[in-house]
Amino acid sequence: MTVPIVVCGAAGRMGRAITRLVHDNPETRLHAAIEGAGNAAVGSDAGTLAGIGEIGIEVGDDYAAVAEPETVALDFTVPEASLAHLRIAAERGAGIAIGTTGLDPDQLAELRRLAPQTRVVFAPNMSVGVNVLLKLVESAAATLNEGFDPEIVEMHHRNKVDAPSGTALALGRAVASGSGRDFDETAVLAREGMVGARTDQEIGIMTLRGGDVVGDHTVIFAGLGERIELTHRASNRDCLARGAVRAGIWLGKRDRGLYSMADVLGL
Ligand SMILES: NC(=O)c1ccc[n+]([C@@H]2O[C@H](COP(=O)([O-])OP(=O)(O)OC[C@H]3O[C@@H](n4cnc5c(N)ncnc54)[C@H](OP(=O)(O)O)[C@@H]3O)[C@@H](O)[C@H]2O)c1
Q1: Atom 21 in ligand 1: residue holding the nearest Cα
Q2: CA of 12 to the centre of ligand 1 (A)
Q3: pLDDT at 43 over 90
Q4: What average pLDDT score do residues 69-84 get?
Q5: Average pLDDT value for residue range 218-245
Q6: Which pTM was predicted?
Q7: Average pLDDT over residues 110-118
Q8: Same CATH topology for 3-122+237-265 and 128-234?
Q9: Which end of the chain is least crowded, N or C, by CB within 10 Å?
Q10: Residue 156 known to be catalytic
Q11: Phi/psi at 176 (5° precision)
Q12: Average pLDDT estimate for 77-94
């Protein structure tokens, strides 16, 4: 049985890649494509928008009208829209995988409160490679706790609106969890001026922006006389979109609950 997918943010960079992959995947079918009200893409054909030619599905602006219980939404939009979609999905019992980043603490709290009412995957990065990196970093941080300073560097394209990336924050949390630190107390998201020497407990996360970089993340464990660097580079969006489609297929068969990509991938 194919999983009926609703692409939320259908005109976006991720939305278009996901539409293409959902259309090509024998385990999924495009149920609907949604954009924000007023977006120029509303009313156009979702396939044409995604560069695969007409597929007979018009981009709409009303997720509530298409959120049947058996559907799974793949949502890569903006935090307010993802939360609005989650409220509808929770009410209807529809599945939703949210990849949107930049949710503030209140929005994250609402997500955690609503998610158990339906089946939800929430992941700041849906690529298989990054999720394996998260595991490696957590385990490296446990071993390199003494004498190694963890620093994270991320680079994304010039149009990314939130910083640091959700993935960089997740990597920071993986360092914290592996090394027994409290992330919120030890994360340093910028340095400028006379900040003083680095403390042992800091987890530095630095942001670069420019060009069309899809997403580079490096976690550095800097010791005395040696340094370990674990790097993931995404060379196109398809690795992220493929992970999203994989999450959608996985959610199609799941009970209610809030899941991560580690759950989806069995890591
Ligand atoms: N988890 C992951 O693996 C992953 C991977 C890549 C990106 N992301 C995150 O996913 C989000 C989207 O990234 P992107 O690069 O695809 O951005 P994008 O190109 O700006 O796409 C976002 C799309 O969502 C639309 N949108 C805004 N409000 C909406 C609403 N109420 N209903 C439906 N659609 C709405 C936007 O329309 P307008 O232009 O009209 O606002 C835009 O077309 C970002 O938060 C990004 O950081 C996550």
Answers
A1: 12
A2: 5
A3: yes
A4: 98
A5: 96
A6: 0.89
A7: 97
A8: no
A9: N
A10: yes
A11: -60, -45
A12: 98
Give the distance (Å) from ligand 1 centre to CA of residue 75: 8
Q: Assess if CATH 1.10.760.10 describes domain 3-122+237-265.
A: no
Query: Which protein residues touch ligand 1 with a CB less than 6 Å away?
Result: 8-9, 11-15, 34-36, 39, 76-78, 81, 99-102, 123-126, 240
* Superfamily in which the 128-234 domain is placed by CATH: Dihydrodipicolinate Reductase; domain 2 (3.30.360.10)
Q: In this predicted structure, what is the pLDDT of residue 124? A: 87
Least Cα distance to 198 among 238, 149, 159, 236 occurs for: 149
Q: Which of 6, 49, 76 gets mutated to test ligand 1 (max ligand atoms within 8 A of its CB)?
A: 76
| pLDDT bracket for residue 222 (50, 70, 90) | very high
User: What residues contact residue 161 under an 8 Å CB cut-off, 6+ apart?
Assistant: 102
Ligand 1: residue of 39, 120, 209 to mutate (most ligand atoms within 8 A of CB) is 39
Return the ligand 1 atom nearest residue 14 CA.
16
Q: How high is the pLDDT of residue 93?
A: 97
- Give the residue extent of every domain in the chain: 3-122+237-265, 128-234
Q: Is 23 a catalytic residue?
A: no
Could you report the per-residue pLDDT of 122-145, keeping only the tens digit for each? 998 899 999 999 999 999 999 998
